[in-house]
Amino acid sequence: MAQATQISHILEQGTPTQTYFAHLDPGKTGIGPMSRSDCHPSEKRAHPRPTIATLAVTLRDDSVLLVRRNNASEAARWGLPGGEVNWGETILDAAQREMSEESGLTTRPRHAFSAHEIIETDDAGNPSRHIIFIAVLCAWIDGQPGGGDDAHEARWFRLEDLANPGLNLNANVVEIVRQAAAFHHDHAFGSSMTVGA
């Protein structure tokens, strides 16, 4: 059994970063399997801490970069590049690394703009998996998309095409990309972008 829980809203006035939130459907995040449960590789805890992961959202000329992964459960769906944050790695650096590994693009991470979490429970109702996702807006610098690491395909999608019902997307991709486009516009990174219909 699984449930998705929205993280409390965090917004510090006067900072350049606003935080947006959306629910994610467990098992359809496009991240792939993550097995690490401890915060520090040398620590052993009676109750493991949540895993921290990133979702990298790269916008370019009214398009967004999406990937399809190699694992069977994700192979047919398009999702955002991302993965687990390594020990000692910043969230922004993790987003940049994951984007490079999964798409081959060179990007510059700008801001973390939203946070999401999933909590999966076993049949007895005990937490069996807990992941916190931090979505990061990235700027394209160089490169053409191509599959890499655990992603076998990467390509640009026009934002207006994300509303196409025939496009097989991971859950909440449209909502997260819409949030990224709004953040991009609100903070004067570029012109206004419209995502889907």
TrEMBL record:
Cofactor(s) the record lists: Mg(2+)
Signal peptide (from-to): none
Keyword Hydrolase applies: yes
PROSITE patterns for the chain: NUDIX, NUDIX_BOX
Coiled-coil residue windows: none
Keywords per UniProt: Hydrolase
Entry-linked CDD domains: NUDIX_ADPRase
Domain Nudix hydrolase stretches: 47-182
Pfam families recorded: NUDIX
Membrane-spanning intervals of the chain: none
Protein family membership: Belongs to the Nudix hydrolase family.
PANTHER family attached to this UniProt entry: ADP-RIBOSE PYROPHOSPHATASE, DIHYDRONEOPTERIN TRIPHOSPHATE DIPHOSPHATASE
Record-given protein name: Nudix hydrolase domain-containing protein
Lineage: Bacteria, Pseudomonadati, Pseudomonadota, Alphaproteobacteria, Acetobacterales
